[in-house]
Amino acid sequence: MDQFLFFFTISLIMGVLGRVYLMRVDYRQYPSYPRGVIMHLTFGIISAALGSIAIPALLAKDYAAVTFLTLAAEQFRSVRTMERENLSLIEDFELVPRGRSYIEEIAKIFEGRNYIVMLTSLTTSLMLYAFSNTYAAVMVGIIILVLLKYSMKGQRIEEIAKVRIGKVWFDGSLLCVDDVVIMNVGLKETKERILKTGIGVVLEPVDQNANITLANIGQRQAIIHDVVTQVGIKKDLDEPDFTPLARRNVNNGNVAFIFYPSIQSEEALLRAVRYAPVLESARRKPTESGAAYGKGGRR
Amino acid sequence: MNIEISHFIMAIVTCERDKVQSGFAPVFYTENEEESEKTAFLIAKITQGMAHNLENGVYIIVRH
To answer: Which domain range does residue B27 map to?
Structure first.
């Protein structure tokens, strides 16, 4: 029995350390520190425990205990629901909302991290049993953790589009960035302020896949939110005129953005756009389609 | 739940009386283009809407 307790303890520690490693509190300040972080660490401990218990339970011929793993699915789903609800509730009070697609993406990532923690614990305890060597088991655990972390890594905008500065100008009362009409602006003062503080950014998709991915409205909103978080915004509640917007050139798929950053640096703005995440839910691959491109596709 | 009026014309401001007769949104007649612009700005601020210029002397204030 002591041996099983040893298996359990080592894998639990591996899982919890894994969760700490996966915790990233960066410019997004999400999960929020300190309460959000504590919550996720606790969830991580539960996930690690669920992963660690499976092998010792099987060895002890306690098959009923393995059904605990079904709890895991429920547990992870609740992490996702919690994140979704939390972010949706504060959404109305964000100056620049995240958009539902981005919220769903974040919730999905948090759920995924718990799976990683559980798999790390499970692998560690399995290796402990197979090799009876703690160091080897811990090493395999670390490798699994790092591999899974990198397999979860999503794309950045710079991988699917060329990002450059676009010219901000007015055609009468129509605000344009390069050849794309963004919106109608009525007041002279607003126009002057837009010309002074607005910076246009144009995304040129590198291929057909990127073209349709960038057309996704959730993807555009996610870029806007991410950029505003980093370079700031010159706008208040009663100034809808200065809402950053994205409009698409339907002929070539270019997406033009207008931003009003607090940090008036084109370089900083371009970097922020380049590093914005490509949403998993927005990604499309029409080039894999049999109908459009004559590829294998689905029969 | 947050209930708000959006995607809605809150007001119409014009100095060209024959361009706007009536409508579901209140119409504000002004003396000249300059006054139109100022009135449009004030209404936009008050209603948290945005002023749009129809380029024929008519401004509409829209809640987006």
So the answer is: 8-63
